[in-house]
Amino acid sequence: MTRRMERRLAPWLAAAIAILLTAVPGLALAHGIGGKDAAFVASSHGAQIIPFLYLGAKHMVTGYDHLLFILGVIFFLYRLSHVALYVTMFSLGHSITLLTGVLTGVQVNPYLIDAIIGLSVAYKAFDNLGGFQTLLGVQPDTKLAVLVFGLFHGFGLATKLQTLHPSKDGLVANMISFNVGVELGQLIALTVMLGVILWWRKSSSFARHAVLANALILTAGFVLMDYQLAGFFTHRAA
User: Fold this and answer.
1) How many other β-carbons are positioned within 10 Å of the β-carbon of residue 218?
2) Domain range spanning residue 62?
3) How many domains does the chain have?
4) What pTM value is reported for the model?
5) For residue 65, which of 109, 100, 32, 98 has the smallest C-alpha distance?
């Protein structure tokens, strides 16, 4: 890649991220399982393996909050073995709470859980920026943090499914299929993001713009968190 091309691409990338940030509140409102997908989940009976596989994959590849967190996790990982380890920790976390939440009926306030998911995005970007070491002089266990936040992400998925009151007939098979679909969607998204990052690292613009990119991810995380907290207090007061 030539430096001229890098200079041309950088403003477009920054503009695209800025536009995304201004749209975050609208995205937060639209995020979930709605329309025909919601109607299908609410009315389905018996094992529906393929449809729930599809819904799980679709939810993940369109779940900007989950994708932002994964992007933060892999941003500075240079070995595929490390990528596999961290993604496995995240997958383990959200698989546990997704299945447990739906199958046992454990419920969490959707605004609070989504606020924590937004916090997870901000947390990882702050960690990438060296904020903990610089400001606090400590470095949290990043693997444990990814696992713990994975648990919250799973509860977020479970909460969205519980609001649709899926039938207990075939529930176990359908939830396992949905979870497998989530993993497939995550693998697809991860492949794309990792490919883009590997391509970007080959250019000199990566070192110049890595801090900006994580600062924008940090901002997006706080915007998501603030939006969900506002929704929580608004509905509580109503």
Assistant:
1) 21
2) 31-237
3) 1
4) 0.85
5) 32
